[in-house]
């Protein structure tokens, strides 16, 4: 690969909510009905049918505002993915596929304002993995640089055979996958204080990662799959020792996994959205400097308001390692697979 010079600061985890009207949101009747109500002064409200879901600001739907925010923060590139409310996983598959095509078209239009700086990620009807493969292939051909999925569909986790089949397809066509937690478990016990986001999201992501490890899914998936988990992998890094200990001491834990969980950390990436340099240091110790990428969760208020601040404050990193976390790893993660290159379990050829 030619020397491309220093990689720009790249945020792999940012969201968009195009300006869908109430009528357009009805395409997902009974499955969320997402639309955007825009108010005065750059304010807005994400809507779910008639219900107010979350107040938002114009960076979520206005590319000019987003680019201005990126410039002010020193961010060169953003990967742009849908807001999980838009997934539509509860809808009938054909209707969901049509909706995803519309969402993907709007994301492409949003990113067209700055094609070198805004990387579009598509979404797919993951409730029907075969249809999801078709939508992903179509979106990649249209210009999408990756696919953004939720970490489960109902009671089907990422190690579900249909979903692992979709992940294998993404590896085959060279399409990176960003996994975001959503529809959090135990919501009936997490009332108020944004507890589903503070407790449920980390648990969901840990569940997804351990499920892929302990089910043997990573043994079956192509090594070429580029997979990234948001929010630093949730609670995974802190509890990895517990999982390894269980694998060593209980046969029911290791029944489907020939290797302990810690030996699969080279099969995926995580973003850096942990907000504490000490937590990031642990995450890097677990994952290695080549598997962590800047992620901010822009433009939501639970995101990193000063992009890259946690990476820059993390102890024990040299300049080259910080540069990898701030952009170098992301450039490799989103690098297009050259035309005609076959991606297989043994790598590329």
UniProtKB/TrEMBL annotation:
The highest taxon in the source lineage is Bacteria
Functional pathway: Secondary metabolite metabolism; quinolate metabolism
| EC id | 4.1.1.45
Q: Which InterPro entries match?
A: ACMSD, Amidohydro-rel, Metal_Hydrolase
| Protein keywords | Decarboxylase, Lyase, Metal-binding, Zinc
Indicate the segments forming the Amidohydrolase-related domain, all copies: 11-334
PANTHER family given in the database record? 2-AMINO-3-CARBOXYLMUCONATE-6-SEMIALDEHYDE DECARBOXYLASE (PTHR21240), 2-AMINO-3-CARBOXYMUCONATE-6-SEMIALDEHYDE DECARBOXYLASE (PTHR21240:SF27)
Tell me its family.
Belongs to the metallo-dependent hydrolases superfamily. ACMSD family.
Q: How does it assemble?
A: Monomer.
This protein is called what?
2-amino-3-carboxymuconate-6-semialdehyde decarboxylase
Question: Which species is this UniProt entry from?
Answer: Actinomadura graeca
